[in-house]
Amino acid sequence: MKGILVVHSFSGNTFSVSEKVVNKLKKEGHDVYIERLETTEKVKNGTPLSDIHLKNMPDLSSFDFVILSSPVHGGGVSSVMKKFIISSDSINGKDIFCFVTHFFPFAWMGGNSAISQFKKMCSEKNANVIDSSVVNWKNKKETGIGETVSKALDYVNSLCQK
Ligand SMILES: Cc1cc2nc3c(=O)[nH]c(=O)nc-3n(C[C@H](O)[C@H](O)[C@H](O)COP(=O)(O)O)c2cc1C
To answer: Cα–Cα distance between 132 and 151 in angstroms, integer?
Structure first.
């Protein structure tokens, strides 16, 4: 299966988990690309979406599976990832796996609300989040990275069976 992982990462946490996901999927024989969203100017907390300009706008149309990943910002998806979702035409009709990384130790402290926002934004673009995961960065013992990697693999395998 051919897939793409589109990631926004401000300080590198989400990107490092995304690399682990991609490496695992490659090991399992999938053809997967990773693309990190970049902006033309630095985005500050509170920058309106209309002032965010993406340098790259990955085209999802040719991919069998799509993974989106974002840090939690203010209890939601990062504004750069929001900008990507609302601007993307090729997201239409896709079955998606998404995950977030956040600082607090439990998913209910921001991670779950960001996932709900991911689902809502995707459904507004006629895309379907079929599974998701939260990485709690502060909790060193059980960060959820392994679980995220295995859920991503399960998601891809479920699409293979369709
Ligand atoms: C502007 C901003 C807002 C944030 N808001 C939250 C938040 O609401 N809840 C939370 O748990 N972590 C929050 N964080 C922490 C990040 O979600 C966390 O450190 C994440 O792993 C960073 O991912 P990154 O390195 O890929 O950018 C925030 C970080 C920034 C910079």
So the answer is: 8
Task: Determine if ligand 1 sits within 6 Å of the CB of residue 103.
Answer: yes
**Ligand 1 centroid distance, CA of 139 (Å):** 14
Q: Note the pLDDT of residue 140.
A: 59
Assessment of whether the complete model's pTM goes beyond 0.85: yes
**Domain locations along the chain:** 2-160
- Site to probe by mutation for ligand 1, drawn from 34, 99, 103 as the one with most ligand atoms within 8 Å of Cβ, is 103
| CB contact at 8 A, 47 and 64 | no
61 vs 46: which has the higher pLDDT: 61
pLDDT tens for residues 21-30?
999 999 999 9
Nearest CA to ligand 1 atom 16: 102
Ligand 1 atom with least separation from CA of 70 = 26
Indicate if the pLDDT at residue 141 is higher than 60: no
Q: Which of the four CATH numbers 3.90.180.10, 3.40.50.360, 3.40.1130.10, 1.10.1040.50 does domain 2-160 have?
A: 3.40.50.360
- Ligand 1 centroid to Cα of residue 103, in Å, is 6
- Written as one letter, the residue type at 42 is K
Beta bridge partners, 136, equal 102
How many whole angstroms separate alpha carbon 149 and alpha carbon 146? 5
